[in-house]
Amino acid sequence: MQSPTSPSRLCVLVMGPSGVGKSTFAQALAEAMGASFIEGDDYHTSENRAAMSAGRPLTDEMRQPWLIALADTVRHSRGKRDTVFTCSALKRRYRDLLREGIGEMRLLCLSAPRALIRQRMIARKHFMPAELLDSQIEALEAPTPDEYAIMLEMSEGLDANVARALKLIGR
Ligand SMILES: Nc1ncnc2c1ncn2[C@@H]1O[C@H](COP(=O)(O)OP(=O)(O)OP(=O)(O)O)[C@@H](O)[C@H]1O
Ligand SMILES: O=C(O)[C@H](O)[C@@H](O)[C@H](O)[C@H](O)CO
């Protein structure tokens, strides 16, 4: 039997505020690794989606069921294959909740200048409005040294960042 703390497959969390480029980067990374890709946004409750679409930031309580459902899916996936997943995972306690459900994971924390993120959010078609960006950045608790996160600056270009991430995670 496999315990959540002794998984056989690599699990990578791609985190950071809305619009920073998690989905774009994580899909490219998963493809380069031959890993499964899981999009965190697909596990929100309909209430959460409605709130975000209406420009209301999520509360800790609203994020709880989302994080639990996502962790459940990722745990099953990483039991079979290397898995890359996205989740804003803005606060330490959210990341701890994910670790509780999933086991060990590598953290890739994406950042970009606020103005660039805002520009990209305005340009895309998505339920998350650019007006929520400030609340995302305010809520963000950067990973602490004990989380061994790899920090990636997204204005540097997708291919360079994928290559750097592969090297740093040893793939
Ligand atoms: N390296 C890049 N160069 C140019 N545009 C990019 C790059 N990365 C992402 N984008 C664009 O920026 C927008 C936001 O990216 P993406 O949807 O991947 O962010 P996200 O962090 O997953 O957002 P959310 O958490 O809100 O789902 C998209 O329109 C995407 O096409
Ligand atoms: O924790 C949160 O505030 C939300 O989950 C957001 O970050 C969204 O998931 C997402 O990024 C929207 O596209």
TrEMBL record:
SUPFAM superfamilies: P-loop containing nucleoside triphosphate hydrolases
Entry protein name: Gluconokinase
NCBIfam families with a match to the protein in the record: therm_gnt_kin
Gene Ontology cellular-component terms listed: cytoplasm
Keyword Nucleotide-binding found: yes
InterPro entries, per database record: P-loop_NTPase (IPR027417), Therm_gnt_kin (IPR006001)
Taxonomy, superkingdom: Bacteria
Catalytic activity: D-gluconate + ATP = 6-phospho-D-gluconate + ADP + H(+)
A Pfam match: AAA_33
Keyword Nucleotide-binding among record annotations: yes
One Gene Ontology term from the biological process aspect of the record: carbohydrate metabolic process
Key words, A-Z: ATP-binding, Kinase, Nucleotide-binding, Transferase
The protein's annotated pathway: Carbohydrate acid metabolism
GO molecular function terms attached to this record: ATP binding; gluconokinase activity
EC number from the UniProt entry: 2.7.1.12
Enzyme class: transferase
Family affiliation: Belongs to the gluconokinase GntK/GntV family.
